[in-house]
Structures are given as C-alpha cells and as structure tokens.
Design goal:
mainly beta, six-stranded mixed beta sheet, five-stranded mixed beta sheet, 27 strands, 6% helix, 47% strand
C-alpha cells in the first residue's frame, strides 16, 4: 500500500483521487462565470517590493504591477502550504485567468474570465510559481517550481490597471470539512530581467555642436539618453571628424541606470606641461601659466622654455591635429661619495 502525504491510498481515497483527475481533465481552458469567497489585492508600487498575504481555499489574488515594466519580466509567487493540504495532496487547484470582468475589487465576488492554466497543489509544504509576462523571462524550468505559460495578451498589457488573477478552488470530494479553513501564505515579488540602462551625456567644447557618432558594443546608437542594455560590461566609442575619438568601458547593473558623461575634445593639438613649482615657462617666447589641464595649440613647430633659477632648457614640439603632447622638466640630484 503506497502513501501520499500522511494518508494511505485505500480504495475510497483512490476513488477521490481518480475523481480529482477526471475533474481536472474536464477543466480545459474556456471562458466561465465563477464566484470567489474573497478577493485579495497585491499591488506593487516598486520593482523590488515583496508582498505577503494569506489566502483561503476558494479565494483569489489580484496582482497589479508598477506602470513601468522596463525591468520586470514576470512575477514569483511562493506558497507556504498548510499540513491539511499537504496531507490531501491534489485536493486544491490553482487557476490563472485572463480577460477578467468586471475589474476586480475587494467588494466584488462574482467574475467572468478566461481560464488559461490549471494545476493542483502537490504534497509539499512549499510551492513556487512563476508567471512570465514577457519573452525575456530568464528563469529556467526546474523540479522545485512551476512556470506557467506566457500569454500573448500579457506582452502589451498595462499591469498597473489590468493585473494577474489567480484563483484557488477545492477539486476533490470526500475531504475533511476542516480543509475548507486551511490558509495558504503567499509571498509575491516581481522577477527582474537581466537589463539596466545607460544615461549618456556628451559635452562639446564649443557652443556649436558638430556631428559625431556614438557606438555601443560596435553598434550604432541613437537613443543613448536612456539606452536599455544587458547586464555586464559594455564598450562605448564616440567617433567624429570634428572631435577626437573617445573610448570608454562601462558596466550595466540590473534594474539600475549607469550615468556616463563624455567631454568631447576638439582635434586641435593639446600640450600638457609638467614641471616643478616656481618654474617659469614660456611657449613661443610668451609666458605661460601652468595648470593640470592641457592647453590647445596650433599645428606646427612650437618651442617650450623652462627657467628654474639659473637653470634653463628649451624643447621643440612638432604638433599635429588629434595629438596630445607632454613636455616635462625633470630636476635630478646626484649623490657621490669621496674618500
């Protein structure tokens, strides 16, 4: 004699189990009128939010999501199953509905909708359900959870107004009356996809912005003010005939926005001066104030003169467009030992 839960399958319980299977077989997808004992709303306002409620048999939960579904690919439901339902496994079914009328409210108990999925709660103390709402739902099938089929109507649906309707119902005869009072504890949270956003701003060096092209991972990008990308490392390049080419590496984190600012530099040659403090510097015989930032120079030959005390040195720079040059004055000290 084989046991299911804590109850051995006698001839009578076998009949109940057979009835349950026959009953479920007859519950194929179709539109129907039905009544629930109570409607339990689960309204999400944040994508990282987690909501926990309690539901009885013959109740239903109504799940609504935030208006912005950019990072949401589905909903995860974790059911904590009471011992009574575990003992009488497959006695309670959960059903997913679409096209619910009227709009669910806590006051209304009578509905009309199209049932798209049905299954029974097995003899386990926990059950995880995944309800995908988009094609980029990334959680794989596994023996410890049930992934409900995605509906085409979900892909363009506004889940902040029209949500997910999940109903519970007794589907086995001959169960104890106490089972009617069993309570399911349900925790729900949005399932995030593997995406984030890039917010790229560029700052031209002049008031008149010249043309340039942006490439992300070697692909042209036009809408880079809020570019949705996969999580991980990415490469950015800004290419122009009027500005210097800029290369950056950045990382996208899940459901977050990476802010990146690129200052575009002209193609004129740049000169950076590095020297000790109190050094007098002259560029083409004109005194130059030294800063940490490079300065713009013209193409061609330039002379850089350093004067530090009695020490003077002159260097020549042949400048070309698109290049940056550094001229450094190194003052060294030599230590010698004599007998």
């Amino acid at each position: 004699m084989r046991a299911i839960g804590h109850i051995p399958i006698s001839g009578i319980s076998k009949k109940f189990a057979v009835f349950s299977l026959i009953f479920l077989a007859g519950l194929s997808a179709f539109s129907e009128n039905f009544r629930v004992r109570k409607l339990i709303p689960m309204e999400f306002t944040e994508i990282t939010e987690k909501i926990t409620v309690e539901s009885g048999i013959n109740d239903a939960v109504w799940i609504t999501l935030p208006p912005d579904l950019t990072y949401i690919s589905g909903v995860e439901l974790q059911l904590k199953v009471p011992e009574e339902i575990v003992t009488w496994r497959d006695s309670v079914a959960y059903m997913l509905y679409e096209k619910i009328e009227p709009l669910p409210t806590v006051k209304n108990k009578n509905y009309y909708g199209e049932r798209v999925y049905l299954n029974t709660i097995p003899g386990n103390f926990s059950l995880t359900l995944y309800i995908p709402i988009s094609d980029d739902f990334s959680i794989k099938d596994n023996p410890y959870s049930v992934k409900l089929p995605i509906s085409e109507s979900y892909k363009d649906k506004d889940f902040s107004k029209s949500g997910i309707f999940l109903r519970f119902m007794m589907v086995m005869k001959g169960v104890p009356e106490s089972l009617e009072d069993a309570i399911l504890k349900i925790s729900a949270k949005p399932v995030l996809n593997g995406k984030g956003a890039l917010n790229l701003t560029t700052t031209p060096p002049a008031s008149d912005e010249k043309k340039y092209s942006v490439f992300i991972d070697d692909l042209p990008a036009s809408d880079y003010g809020n570019k949705i990308l996969s999580v991980g490392e990415h490469h950015l390049s800004v290419v122009s005939d009027s500005y210097r080419n800029e290369l950056r590496t950045f990382r996208i984190d899940q459901a977050k926005t990476t802010v990146l600012s690129v200052r575009l530099r002209g193609i004129e040659p740049l000169l950076r001066i590095i020297c000790p403090r109190d050094t007098n510097v002259f560029l083409d015989d004109s005194s130059l104030k030294v800063t940490s930032e490079p300065i713009v120079i013209t193409q061609g030959e330039h002379s850089v003169k350093f004067i530090l005390g009695d020490y003077e040195v002159v260097k020549t720079v042949s400048a070309q467009n698109g290049r940056t040059y550094s001229v450094s004055l190194n003052v060294d000290a030599t230590v010698s030992e004599e007998e």
